[in-house]
Amino acid sequence: MVDSVRNTITIDAPQSCECAVAGSELPSLPEWDHLYATLGTTPYDAEKWNQLLHLAEKSADLKRIQYSYDSFLRVYPDNASAVIQYIRSFSKPTQRQFREALFDKYLNECHDVQLWQMYMSHVKSVSLITLYIHTDISVGRYEYGQSYDTVCSAFESAIGHVGHDLNSGDVWEDYIRFVETRQTRATFGDHHQLRRIYQRALQTPHENLTQLWSMYELFEKEAGHTEVCCHVKELAPAYDKACCALLELREHFTKIASMSPTSKLPLSLPHHPTFTLTDRVLAGFWKAYLRWEESDPLELGESQRVVLLERINRAYSKALAQMRYFPEIWYMAYARLPSSDQTSQALTLLKNGIDANPTSFLLNLAYAEGLEAAGKENSQLVHVVYTTFLARLRADLAERRNGGISNESHQNRPDVIDVVDALDTDPMSPAVKDFFERRQEYGSVWVMYMRFARRSEGATGSRRILSQATKDVLAPWQVYEAAARNEYHCTQAVAAAVDIYEKGLERFRGQVDFVLHYLDFLLSVNDMRNAGALFFRVIETFPPHRARPLWERWARHQNQYADLQSVLEINKRMAAIYTEDSPMKRFAQRYVYDGVDTIAARDTHDSQYKRPAVEGASHAEGHESHSAPDTSHTHTSAVEHRRPSHSVRKRKRGRSPSPSYSGRPPAIRRR
User: Which pLDDT does position 26 carry in this prediction?
Assistant: First the structure.
């Protein structure tokens, strides 16, 4: 902002609506007070904000108006429409100092053409009072004071902030007309200044482009220099590029406008997405526009890299103001920043994004990673990021649990939370399903936290975070499974991994997926004694329809590595339980390897059989080769071929008899 009009004053704005009401000396206005208190807990209610600001304006109480707008702009710091209304509320000459303070505070936050035009009107009204010091009509010259340079400097600030906007044409034109009024017969130096402004304006796509070209041609003709045609011809190619870019820019914003939500409220606010098709399309249009800006459509190249980066920065500023609650836009803005010398700027951007989207996995994880990559001195900050994020998710998860499980007497019992079949509610109800999905996501953050602790502090740090997670009743079984795998792969401690699995089994004994992961681990490390002990210990605790993945996994391993007598025995037991299975299909499963079922492919021509991709054919079709999943059993293992579910299946009435085993099953042996 121009120094001559900068008069910073302290705005005693409240930290929150609640604090402001409690500590203010405002006269009581019940309706306003109620709205203020409500917005302290629901700060994203657009209708209530509009009502609050309307009541404040209607009261004509300047202190109330200030408190209202300050509180609003703490939630929406880049809402230019609110800033404009705020400044207009202090338009009297005696309020000039406060008005200038508002400009100083918000101009750099809001890259809005209308706000900058308002600022320019203010600067000119203050500065041009003393513009003409002396006029000599006889010689046709005007002498100026320092105010002319002040206004020009303010115009340059405006061009720097919004000069790349599609609607910035009026700002460019006002700047040119202001400079043209400097004198009736300008010197060569004055023409040179004006020519440079024209050249910059005509290389920028905006709505006044054609009109400014006509003005420029007239200006060069009136200048009367011999090189007039040369100037016009030199600028013509850049002008043509700007015209082509203008058409593309209009198309981008036409698409964005067609999908943007409309509001009948006086003050429109960024909406919180529900990720409907409309939201996804809108985000896609914004991302397409941002990629278009990054592609350098004006072909500025390295010679004008500063201008190109400025255009891209302003494009992202506009996108973030309108798509404030879309984390992917924040991440795009972060990812494009170079990692060499702008670490602080990039992390600040992510922090601002988290302020707007406190439960965003994308932004919180990116922020934690960015801090970790910046140096070990940030380790404590990374711990704060994870603990804060987990606390937010935990509060949300607890609220959903209380809303999704109807029997309140069961809400605080870990066994009820972990053993789905013990729920008194329908396990397939949307609320319960949503709870378990989010709980799984919550657990993934604990896993990421353990990874960070291992990287920064070694195995001790990871174990300390696991200890914290085990005290969290909402932490899912995936936390234990990830910790056990981490112990095995990072410290080669099989016994420590088994101990963690056993600890998890005490709590998640009723989760088939957890037992399946445990069994798969023991088989993967060839610990057959403990694998068999686990299988025979838990298999009878599940009804057949839930135990099937365990049977299939054990049978597949036996088919591949056991002697024929053991293979036939396990298949006999399964046939006794799952009587509906085809004997031929069960026989075929014993002869499947790497997903290749020769019997299904060549003898029975089973329509449900999907042949693994052949590497040569895949390359011939122009596709990458991928490893085929093992389809050696009817129900694919949750460990290897599907996302672990929370097993929220409705229990079938009645149970088929489980196979009986003679003797006491062997106990898990620690190494």
Answer: 77
User: Would residue 130 count as lying in a domain?
Assistant: yes
505: enclosing H helix or E strand: helix 494-507
Q: How many domains does the chain have?
A: 4
273: left (phi over 0), alpha (psi -120 to 50) or beta: beta
Asked if residue 494 belongs to a domain, the reply is no
Matching residue, tokens 């490390």: 525
Nearest to 572 by CA among 585, 586, 561, 560: 586
DSSP-derived pairing of the beta strands 141-144 and 132-136: antiparallel
Contact by Cβ (8 Å): 467, 389 = no
pLDDT category at 268 given cuts 50, 70, 90 is confident
Instruction: Kindly state whether residues 98 and 117 are assigned to the same domain.
Output: no
Is there a single domain that holds both residue 253 and residue 230? yes
Note whether residue 265 is domain-resident. yes
b/e string for 275-309 if b means 16 or more Cβ within 10 A? eeeebeebbebbbebbebbbeebbebeeeeeebbe
Distance CA 223, CA 218 (A): 9
Whether 90 and 155 map to the same domain: the answer is no
Question: What pLDDT was estimated at residue 190?
Answer: 62
Q: How many Cα atoms within 13 Å fall on the side-chain side of residue 560?
A: 14
pTM for the whole structure: 0.81
Domain, as residue range, for 266: 260-357
The residues with which 132 forms a beta bridge, in sequence order, are 144
Residue 227 lies in a domain: yes
pLDDT of residue 461: 94
Per mean pLDDT, which range of 128-132, 192-196, 572-576 is the poorest?
128-132
| 127 and 206 belong to one structural domain | yes
What is the model's pLDDT at position 21? Answer: 35
Lowest mean pLDDT among 236-250, 274-288, 496-510, 600-614: 600-614
